[in-house]
Amino acid sequence: MFRTPALLAPLLALLLPATALAAPCSDTGGQYEAWKPVIAAEAQAQGVGPRGIDALMASSYSKSTIAADRNQKSFRYSLEKFLQVRGADAIISQGRKRKAKNPDLYAALEAQYGVPAGILLAIHGMETGFGGFMGDTNVVSAIATLSYDCRRSDFFTPHLIAALKLVDAGTITPQTQGAKHGELGHTQFLPGNALDYGVDGNGDGRLDLADLTDALASTANFLRQKGWRPGKGYQEGEPNFAVIEQWNAATVYQQAIALMAARIDG
């Protein structure tokens, strides 16, 4: 049994000195419940408020997230195999149709951020099949599980803090669903990237990555802020190819996005 976060936080502040706040990781889920109040104190020290802490304490260890994290086989394929498995021809075909159907949106995004339609459409198609499937896993539980897991705890803990701050802000809820690694919306933003680079593309006063315009504008903003140079090429050896790496570190993914984007734009 655990105290409510409102009672828990002051107790933790007394019991845990500032130098001992770093939460330990584990390779099994057996200590997840004991870990939550420790990471909660760390999150509170980094500015997470009551709603975010409540979401963390309500989270559960996600076995499906761990299974997915240990089974990312497609990134080890050859480029030809990767394009086949990920349905590149269908993405290109659909991407061209979507660009032709809504040219003003993509032109406006390129005018503002310098990122061409092909890149945005290739990412959108690759990540969620153009919004066809944006995930069925609780975002807070997924990110918390990966923060708790030792494999990449240092990478995912800042994303956990960001996810809790997104809950505080009302951008997501404790029930928000995403991909197995906690990615959000049409183009699958990790929470830290959503917090840092998400923009209100449709002008309704809030960030909603399940909204297509917000998601595409946020993706374009991310790439621009990571160094995208308007008007420059994005194939291997060209200035913008390295920026695609900021979206996904797998070389075969970067190559696929560049090739598909060129065919969509062409």
Unreliable stretches: 1-20
Question: How many beta-strand runs?
Answer: 2
**If classified by CATH, what would the architecture of the largest domain be?**
Orthogonal Bundle
Order of helices and strands: HHHHHHHHEHHEHHHH
Radius of gyration from the CA trace?
20 Å
| Sequence of strands across the biggest β-sheet | 1-2
Q: Which structural class is indicated by helix and strand composition? A: mainly alpha
Question: Strand fraction band?
Answer: under 5%
- The N- to C-terminal Cα distance equals 60 Å
Number of domains: 2
The CATH class of the largest domain: Mainly Alpha
Helix-strand layout with pairing:
Layout: H1 5-15, H2 32-45, H3 50-58, H4 63-69, H5 79-85, H6 88-101, H7 103-113, H8 117-128, E1 137-138, H9 139-148, H10 153-169, E2 177-178, H11 191-197, H12 212-225, H13 241-247, H14 251-265
What does this entry look like structurally?
The chain has two domains: 107 residues, Helicase, Ruva Protein, domain 3, CATH 1.10.8; 115 residues, Lysozyme (Orthogonal Bundle), CATH 1.10.530. It is built from 14 helices and two strands, in the order ααααααααβααβαααα. Strands 1-2 form a two-stranded antiparallel ribbon. The longest helix has 17 residues. The radius of gyration is 20 Å and the shape is globular.
